C-alpha cells in the first residue's frame, strides 16, 4: 500500500514537471508566431465587434466593423459626450436658484 502511494506521488511529480516544461516552451514560441501578425498599432486594421444588445430580445444585433482609427474616434466622441453631460448636470445642479 505504501509503495503504491510513493509511486503515485512520483508519477504525479513527473507529470507536473513535464507539463511545466511544455508550457514554458509554448510561451517562448508564442512571440515568434505572432511576429507575422498585424501590429497592434495599425490604424487601418479592421476590427468587428458585436452590436449593442437590445433589451428584451434574444436575437443579437448586427456586428459593426470599423478600422482601429475609427473605433478610437468613436470612443473619444463617446467620452466627450459623457463629459459634456456631466459638466452640464454639474452646472445645472450647482448654479440653479431653485
Structure commentary:
With 98 residues, the chain is mostly helical. The protein has 2 domains: 35 residues; 61 residues, no CATH class. 62% of the residues lie in helices and 8% in strands. The chain contains 2 helices and 2 strands; from the N terminus they run αββα. The longest helix is centred in the first third of the chain and has 33 residues. It is elongated and about 80 Å long. The mean pLDDT is 75.
Short description:
The protein contains two helices and two strands, in the order H-E-E-H.
Which terms would index this structure?
about 100 residues; mainly alpha; 2 domains; two-stranded antiparallel sheet; 2 helices; 2 strands
Helix count equals 2
Radius of gyration: 27 Å
Order of helices and strands: HEEH
How many β-strand stretches?
2
Which sequence of strands runs across the widest sheet? Answer: 1-2
Strand content: 5-15%
Shape: elongated
Helix content: 55-70%
- Describe the largest sheet: 2 strands, antiparallel
* Straight-line distance between termini: 84 Å
Low-pLDDT runs:
none
Number of domains: 2
Structural class: mainly alpha
Mean pLDDT: 75
Write the layout of secondary structure elements.
Layout: H1 2-34, E1 46-49, E2 64-67, H2 68-95
Antiparallel strand pairs: 1-2
Amino acid at each position: 500500500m505504501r509503495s503504491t502511494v510513493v509511486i503515485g506521488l512520483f508519477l504525479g511529480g513527473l507529470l507536473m514537471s513535464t507539463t511545466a516544461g511544455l508550457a514554458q516552451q509554448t510561451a517562448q514560441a508564442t512571440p515568434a508566431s505572432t511576429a507575422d501578425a498585424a501590429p497592434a498599432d495599425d490604424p487601418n486594421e479592421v476590427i468587428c465587434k458585436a452590436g449593442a444588445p437590445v433589451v428584451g430580445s434574444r436575437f443579437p444585433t448586427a456586428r459593426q466593423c470599423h478600422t482601429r482609427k475609427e473605433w478610437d474616434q468613436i470612443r473619444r466622441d463617446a467620452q466627450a459626450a459623457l463629459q459634456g453631460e456631466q459638466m452640464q448636470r454639474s452646472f445645472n445642479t450647482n448654479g440653479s436658484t431653485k
